[in-house]
Amino acid sequence: xxxxxxxxxxxxxxxxxxxxxxxxxxxxxxxxxxxxxxxxxxxxxxxxxxxxxxxxxxxxxxxxxxxxxxxxxxxxxxxxxxxxxxxxxxxxxxxxxxxxxxxxxxxxxxxxxxxxxxxxxxxxxxxxxxxxxxxxxxxxxxxxxxxxxxxxxxxxxxxxxxxxxxxxxxxxxxxxxxxxxxxxxxxxxxxxxxxxxxxxxxxxxxxxxxxxxxxxxxxxxxxxxxxxxxxxxxxxxxxxxxxxxxxxxxxxxxxxxxxxxxxxxxxxxxxxxxxxxxxxxxxxxxxxxxxxxxxxxxxxxxxxxxxxxxxxxxxxxxxxxxxxxxxxxxxxxxxxxxxxxxxxxxxxxxxxxxxxxxxxxxxxxxxxxxxxxxxxxxxxxxxxxxxxxxxxxxxxxxxxxxxxxxxxxxxxxxxxxxxxxxxxxxxxxxxxxxxxxxxxxxxxxxxxxxxxxxxxxxxxxxxxxxxxxxxxxxxxxxxxxxxxxxxxxxxxxxxxxxxxxxxxxxxxxxxxxxxxxxxxxxxxxxxxxxxxxxxxxxxxxxxxxxxxxxxxxxxxxxxxxxxxxxxxxxxxxxxxxxxxxxxxxxxxxxxxxxxxxxxxxxxxxxxxxxxxxxxxxxxxxxxxxxxxxxxxxxxxxxxxxxxxxxxxxxxxxxxxxxxxxxxxxxxxxxxxxxxxxxxxxxxxxxxxxxxxxxxxxxxxxxxxxxxxxxxxxxxxxxxxxxxxxxxxxxxxx
Length: 733
Hints:
Elements: H1 10-40, H2 48-63, H3 67-74, H4 80-87, E1 122-135, H5 138-142, E2 163-166, H6 188-194, E3 204-217, H7 219-230, E4 245-254, H8 270-279, E5 401-403, E6 431-433, E7 436-442, E8 450-460, H9 479-499, E9 521-523, E10 533-534, E11 540-547, E12 551-553, E13 561-564, E14 568-577, E15 584-594, E16 598-603, E17 607-608, E18 615-620, E19 630-642, E20 664-668, E21 674-678, H10 683-689
Antiparallel strand pairs: 1-3, 2-18, 3-7, 4-8, 5-6, 8-9, 8-10, 11-14, 12-13, 14-15, 16-19, 17-18, 19-20, 20-21
Region (Disordered): 696-733
Keywords: Membrane, Transmembrane, Transmembrane helix
Transmembrane segments: 21-39
């Protein structure tokens, strides 16, 4: 056999020459394999009839109810008694125990508690004012305030008051004819400005000079200092170690005539003012500050101001205005439920807890009637319980706010004092403003004098709280703190030993006082003195329109003046008259008042009763005193007038009259102070207190032939401007 030549291309040539044979042989092998595997497959033995039979059996099994057959096999009735016995057995803890706890165990700090620094009141603002206040009369106080709802109440005709009074729906006499002696009526705009009558003819109306004092208590900064002093120290409790204001003190000084200042005097008894607000105020206006900015102690309620808007003196400049919805003490309701006697109780002192019912005594929570929260302002029941709990962790405080402390006192105990109960708004908030608004009204000022104020804040001492059961142990306090608190703790221990744990009052059973009397507060430094505030008199002059006058020149000689018209102004004279027969804010519109004139009026006029918003004469209803003259002297002198010229262009008003430059007047008051009054600044106030009747001109020639109902001799007012009765003889009329 010849050897296979593997060189010189022997193998390659063999493959090239016999490749088709190899492929053909491989195809034959594959065909044989496929045929063999096909013969090994199982054949289909199921017939169509078998499929129909299987389908029928499946449908029958689905429709067949077999639970009764298998119920005994698949369900065993539970043995409740056995299960209860098994469940009552204690679970062994050994199989579930771990060598170490997965929870980090916080060990209480042994670092002792210091006294944090206290921040004084900041940004004090003072605003003077004068307004009539509504007080409950002695009869109303004795009757529980029910006299306000009887004859002479708000919006009712006064009965037996001795005054001629008109509620006035129109200027009318008999048969609907216009009557020149009819009283004025309030316009819709004036009714909107004044609102609903909030007093009664039986109320005691007093004109009050006052100064509204507002400021900001830095709650957020104070809380930061508290947390720096307490949070990582021994016996920390979030609810207790939170800044709480319990009282404040106000000092005032008066400027001497030579410009120097007198000594600071504590002439204001804050607690006595609280009692007056609770027992003598006829109502409380709706709150204008958001509830987050208010504090039950620092935010004094707004007084019962009539005729004017109380909100003008109720806000700090940095606090946003709050539109009241359903106020906790609003609705301008009479304070009848607090009237527990005719005589106003006297405050035993000017310390926290000296006002019965305002704060709980030492050893008690501050909730009072608040049902788990801070009591309502000045004797009102609290509205809602505390907002403490896990819910506070859900909400994110808005800008300028912070979350109130939770109700947890530590160790799983609930908080003794709820948060937000009895707030000033309708409902409480779970947030506190970073700066609480301080507000107080000093009603003991004298007009035409200058004053300055400073305020001291009193905070509950977390190291010696009002509730002695929450006091931290002595081992948790620093040495200097223990030294400071030793006299107070000795008082507590002595009283507890004397009473054997009882909490009866050691002060002769004074109402609202329980527990030992000890100092549970710390005081801040006095704030920086406020700006100087000048208390103005009740008299005022409002600027109206101005007539610039007119100068007529000779046509042939422009330098020759033929005649001149002196510029004049229309002003509104205002002054509070405290005489018994008047007791109202007397206003009168005076026209054509020239330079150098005294702003005064002598003649007949109508006055608006501040309690009922009804017009009456400034004298009792007696026949021999009809149409008597009244003298209104403001003490102001008109020095100069500016404005009133026609504007450039073709601009006209709704009456197609050419627009004029707004007027300004320069006036001198009775104390020698000079004031600039602008028509633009006082246009709203001028319209609010201008009670002049509109001018009604009757057709000349007597009876109108086209009007069958017109009457000869007068169907309206004939160009009057001085009010009903005699023609005014005052200057400018």
